[in-house]
């Protein structure tokens, strides 16, 4: 039986909330944990009144917040370099995030939550860059609550639209989540490309970048 098969019977149990917190915490360092699907399913079932949508959001946000700090702490420990360098993809993503952290880190931390793999990369980069907790923790809290409300809300909306077939609602929620992630990634890449062109223009034509007096 897969994880979703184990999770569905828990949807009407009080054990659901610690399960959500645990899965979303683990997802902060082990991205293959299917926490998003379970949160969507919980939101889907919440349309029937059980579980409580508010408690699903709170438990999920708490788990995400704890998972963020787990990844942040690991990246600052002696295990950080080993954890990052075990995967070429992760090391490239962390290096890219590291270069962008000096520009609006709070916004980047929040936006990365909605990108596939962005959460882990940004949390690891924040740790290795020694971003102070006074800046990391508030951004992580906002991102955690925003993602929890969005994901559980998608499941809830799917349950409302596909009342007779909740599995279809769950599939629709997953699809919309992937679409949003793709849109945000496209915007991020276009913004990065525009910034690169601007920097090249400034390097080749410095006069064009002088502020107006």
Automatic annotation (TrEMBL):
GO CC annotation, single: plasma membrane
Pfam family, one: VTT_dom
Domain of life: Bacteria
Alphabetically ordered keywords of this record: Membrane, Transmembrane, Transmembrane helix
UniProt xrefs under InterPro entries: DedA_domain, VTT_dom
Domain VTT: 33-155
Residue stretches spanning the membrane: 45-66, 139-161, 167-187
Family, as annotated: Belongs to the DedA family.
Protein name according to UniProt: Membrane protein
Protein's organism: Winogradskya consettensis
